[in-house]
UniProtKB/TrEMBL annotation:
This is UDP-N-acetylglucosamine transporter. The keyword Membrane applies. It comes from Mucor saturninus. One of its GO terms (cellular component) is Golgi membrane. Pfam families: Nuc_sug_transp. It is found in: Membrane. Keywords: Membrane, Transmembrane, Transmembrane helix. It is a multi-pass membrane protein. GO terms for molecular function: pyrimidine nucleotide-sugar transmembrane transporter activity. The chain crosses the membrane at residues 20-41, 123-142, 154-174, 186-206, 226-246, 253-270, 276-295. Its main location: membrane. InterPro entries: EmrE-like, Nuc_sug_transpt. It comes from the Eukaryota.
């Protein structure tokens, strides 16, 4: 759903209205993430004084710990910008199919970075998951009309492939940090957000300074833009929670099942009529989930 909203927010404006600058959306998402983490840290500690002490002791006094977050934050910032580039240059269906390669890249980095071992049954389950969610996602976008507004498919394809690789590496690297440290998850996300906001700001200034100077940082923003930005920020925090208490591979299964549940809810409450693609993809995802669980 977020992918479709991101694409729609970039392509639905009328010719006489400006499109918002993608790099500013990435930067705003990082700021929202930091603010949300500060609220959650206060909720956890029940005291402003304790929050300030934690922030000072874990961030100001430990620059090395903050430095650890430069790699995932830089990759996440790159990934978010690449997603906007890909969605601006690819049809939604093409993007959805190609983006599922992140499932396999995550598995590969789980082995190389986290030392996990995956047997043949688990690899088969992951391939089936990729095929199943591709069918389900393709069903959700086949009826969406897209117009060629100067799209460059090769650039879009390179962007989405790079995003898949960076997503897998950054996710597994962040998981390793979360699970090998006693530092609060909210502090870690604030550290990640500070680094991410820095990278995003630099990228925004380097690539779009002229546009921002001429039209302002919020040019083209509307309610849908803010919804997409907020959704992206909060979604990133939810992912961190899943990675902390489960792992990146299980996150992939959870995401796939949530897509199916969204389709079922749309069928019950809206006028969505699932086709054989959706039903086949659903069956494959369920089979993959059971196969992975049985192989564990």
């Amino acid at each position: 759903m977020l992918v479709l909203l991101m694409r729609y927010s970039r392509t639905s404006t009328s010719p006489d209205q400006p499109i918002y600058i993608a790099s500013t959306a990435v930067f705003m998402a990082e700021l929202i993430k930091i603010i949300t983490c500060l609220f959650m840290l206060h909720h956890q500690e029940k005291s402003y004084k304790k929050c300030i002490h934690l922030i000072y002791s874990e961030i100001v006094q430990k620059p090395y710990e903050v430095g650890k977050m430069l790699i995932p934050s830089g990759l996440y910032a790159l990934q978010n910008n690449l997603l906007y580039i890909a969605l601006s240059n690819l049809e939604a269906a093409t993007f959805q199919v190609t983006y599922q390669l992140k499932i396999l890249s995550t598995a590969a980095f789980s082995i190389s970075l986290l030392g996990r071992s995956l047997n043949r049954e688990k690899w088969l389950a992951l391939v089936l998951l990729m095929v199943g969610v591709t069918l389900v996602q393709t069903e959700s976008v086949t009826t969406v009309e897209t117009l060629d507004n100067g799209q460059k498919p090769m650039i879009g394809l390179l962007a989405v492939l790079t995003s898949c690789i960076s997503s897998g590496f950054a996710g597994c690297y962040f998981e390793k940090i979360l699970k090998t440290s006693t530092t609060s998850m909210w502090i870690r996300n604030i550290q990640l957000g500070i680094c991410g906001a820095t990278f995003s700001f630099l990228g925004m200034m380097l690539s779009d300074f002229g546009q921002i100077k001429s039209h302002g940082i919020f040019t083209g923003y509307n309610a849908l833009t803010w919804f997409v930005v907020t959704n992206q920020a909060l979604g990133g925090l939810l992912v961190a929670m899943v990675v902390k208490y489960a792992d990146n591979i299980l996150k992939g299964f959870a995401t796939s099942i949530s897509i199916i549940l969204s389709g079922i809810i749309s069928f019950c409450l809206l006028d969505f009529q699932p086709s054989w693609l959706f039903l086949t993809g659903t069956a494959i995802v369920i089979a993959a989930t059971f196969l992975y669980g049985a192989a564990s």
